[in-house]
Write a structure and sequence with these properties.
This protein is mainly alpha-helical and 318 residues long. It is built from 13 helices and two strands. Helix 3 packs parallel to helix 7 and helix 4 crosses helix 7. Its main location: membrane.
Amino acid sequence: MTTTVTAPEATGTQEPAAPRHRRRRPKLPYALLIPAVATLLIGLGYPVTWQIINSFKEYGLAQQFGQPAEFIGLQNYLDLFTDSVFWTIALRSVAFMAGTALLTMGIGIALALLMKAIPAWSRIVLQVAMLLAWAMPIVAQMTVANWLIDDRNGVVNYVLSLIPGVDYIGHNWLIEPLSFFGVAMTIITWASVPFVAFSVYAGLTQVSEEVLEAASLDGASRSQTLRMVIVPIIRPVLVILLLLQLIWDLRVFAQIQLLQDFGAAGERYDLLGTYIYGLGIGQSQFGMAAAAAMVVMALTLAISWGYVRNMIKEDQES
């Protein structure tokens, strides 16, 4: 006895496909961010709001005797943007920021590569030396720097004067703008290099030895391995370090202020930090100082925006 199996008649309709479920992102990470975000909003919200409001007000002699500040709208910003002194200081600050950040990154990366190549005992000695330099307070840094470049008893002038035909005894390094900012750049770079070196070295330790060995077997030289293998792997570390250095060097204040106190040039060699301090504390123009601070904040956000946009793009792609 045979059984005939008949196929079901074809119909014009198809069974609906099973719905595709989108992967649900866990909510716990976002919940864990709430305390940190709340702390930032509380700690930064009031000062930033206060600065924004004050940037639209005018402060003068009457306000020192209790009179309320007058609301003047955008006048502080108009006065600031039409002031050639402000633009000179802003351009000087941007140039100083770029030069100092690039110099810091270059020396820091070189020291990180050196730590990767030298034996353990010498690497530890170098790390301890950099850690001590990094941990030194700014006032101590500036005191040592003042001793080194003192025009009468400074070590730098004495050593340079040992060169035949060179006489630097009595030379003041803080008189000319080029040497003034050269000294400032040297001090800031010296204090910032350890952070970059340690961070880049930590990134280098995460590069797999198998990857380096494969590059060597393929005939890549050391420079090619560094440029085409190592740098792309540690690129996120380098980008965030460069971003941090640009922001820190744009907002530099203490070193410039103390160098101005040491030298005879005074406020003629201002950067944005000391310029804002002079407007607010020195001249009691708190409205103008607040407007200038808002400009610095806008510059900082502009510098950071490229990195933030890339992070958002990578997060969406993942």
